[in-house]
């Protein structure tokens, strides 16, 4: 949980990082920016921090050891000696330029920011912020010229749209620091350069991670096993999706045995689910926990991937949110067509 109410923006430097593949330039500032205007400081705090609104944390990683992760090493040096702030900004900007080698990666302003007074999960700590603005908006400007008002336009950064960001909290150093990220322009695989190529992060194994993992496994089980190929009706597939996500929305603590009783129910389906769990863990290298505290942010994130729509030819889309027992499937021999009966009390 974040608390930025008492956070301070202590230091900031801005560089411009172009696309190396397109032979654009890397332009490094000579010094830090000294912010004297409190209004500007407040605007920057909102711009940098507002987008960080869910409890999804990461850790730095590297196959050859944490010290080989560039950003981890530069952040570590800064936390040990904050007089190296400007030098680390150059190091990080150069590293970002080196990984900006896909033609679709946009160049833009790069910001390194030193924060203090962050509260994360009840702990007060410093943080290092890495941000990048890639997109410009056009703003109308109204100004007075003698006795008339004139209109003009300017290109600038929309302070409500942070493109890319990373907060590195000075805690849990041994496991790769506690890190959170924003990537609003991650539309294509090449855009993964921010999380994977530049930062090289893995999800931190906390309650968010466990909740997300279990729901992702449920989604995979319905898609790969509890499906048409195994003669499971679409309505039954949607019913299991609804029961799965509702279980996580209604409970505070997850218990796998209770989940199986209330959601899986049938013994033969439970057996198939257990087999799929083994497959999922081996395939993803992830240990699925049988008990954990449910994280609501993870539930909200995963909920959008659970589809509730029953598509019938091109004529009907039935949105199913309730219980399966109120939906009955049949066959009309005269029309040679299938049908569904929907049972309800009130029409709204």
Short description:
This protein is of the alpha+beta class and 348 residues long. It has 2 domains: 2-204, no CATH class; 208-342, no CATH class. The protein has 9 helices and 17 strands.
Which properties best describe this structure?
alpha+beta, 9 helices, 348 residues, 33% helix, Nucleoid_associated_NdpA, Nucleoid-associated protein, 7-stranded antiparallel sheet
Largest sheet, strands/sense/barrel: 7 strands, antiparallel
- What is the number of independent domains? 2
Give the N-to-C terminal Cα separation: 39 Å
The overall average pLDDT, rounded, is 88
Number of strands: 17
Per the principal axes of the C-alpha atoms, what is the gross shape? globular
What is the CA-based Rg, rounded? 26 Å
Helix count equals 9
**Which stretches are poorly predicted, pLDDT < 50 over at least 5 residues?**
none
Helix and strand sequence: EEEHEHHEEEEEEHEHHEHHEHEEEE
Helix % is 25-40%
Structural class: alpha+beta
What proportion of the residues form beta strands (DSSP E)?
A: 25-35%
Protein name: Nucleoid-associated protein
GO cellular component, one term: nucleoid
Organism: Ancylomarina longa
Tell me what you see in this structure.
The chain is an alpha+beta fold and 348 residues long. The chain folds into two domains: 2-204, no CATH class; 208-342, no CATH class. 33% of the residues lie in helices and 29% in strands. It contains nine helices and 17 strands. It has helices at 38-49, 70-80, 85-99, 194-199, 207-224, 234-250, 256-264, 267-284, 296-303, and strands at residues 2-3, 8-17, 26-27, 58-60, 108-120, 123-133, 137-145, 148-156, 164-169, 178-183, 201-203, 253-255, 291-293, 309-312, 316-319, 327-332, 337-342. The strands form six sheets. Strands 1, 2, 3, 5, 6, 9 and 10 form a seven-stranded antiparallel β-sheet that branches. Helix 2 (70-80) packs antiparallel against helix 3 and helix 5 runs parallel beside helix 9 (296-303). The longest helix is centred in the middle third of the chain and has 18 residues, at 207-224. The two termini are 39 Å apart.
């Amino acid at each position: 949980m974040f608390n930025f109410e008492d956070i301070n923006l202590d230091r900031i430097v801005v560089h411009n990082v172009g696309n190396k593949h397109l032979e654009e330039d890397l332009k490094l500032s000579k010094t830090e920016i000294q912010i004297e205007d409190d209004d500007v400081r407040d605007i920057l705090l909102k711009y940098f921090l507002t987008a960080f609104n869910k409890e999804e944390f990461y850790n730095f990683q590297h196959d050859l050891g944490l010290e080989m992760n560039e950003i981890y090493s530069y952040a570590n040096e800064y936390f040990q000696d904050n007089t190296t702030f400007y030098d680390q900004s150059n190091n990080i900007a150069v590293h970002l330029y080196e990984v900006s080698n896909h033609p679709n990666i946009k160049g833009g302003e790069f910001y390194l920011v030193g924060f203090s007074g962050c509260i994360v999960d009840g702990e007060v700590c410093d943080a290092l912020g890495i941000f990048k603005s890639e997109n410009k908006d056009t703003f109308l400007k109204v100004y007075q010229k003698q006795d008339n008002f004139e209109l003009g336009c300017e290109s600038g950064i929309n302070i409500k749209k942070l493109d890319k960001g990373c907060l590195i909290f000075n805690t849990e150093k041994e496991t790769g620091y506690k890190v959170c990220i924003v990537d609003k322009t991650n539309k294509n695989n090449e855009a993964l350069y921010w999380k994977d190529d530049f930062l090289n992060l893995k999800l931190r194994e906390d309650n968010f991670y466990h909740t997300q993992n279990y729901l992702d496994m449920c989604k995979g089980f319905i898609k790969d096993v509890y499906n048409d190929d195994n003669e499971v009706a679409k309505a039954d597939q949607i019913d299991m999706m609804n029961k799965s996500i509702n279980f996580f929305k209604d409970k505070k603590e997850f218990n796998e045995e209770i989940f199986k009783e209330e959601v899986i129910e049938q013994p033969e389906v439970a057996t198939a689910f257990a087999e799929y769990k083994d497959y999922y863990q081996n395939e993803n290298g992830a240990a699925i926990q049988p008990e954990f505290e449910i994280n609501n942010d993870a539930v909200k994130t995963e909920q959008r991937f659970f589809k509730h729509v029953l598509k019938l030819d091109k004529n009907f889309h039935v949105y199913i949110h309730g219980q399966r027992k109120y939906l009955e499937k049949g066959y009309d021999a005269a029309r040679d067509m299938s049908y569904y009966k929907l049972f309800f009390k009130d029409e709204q």
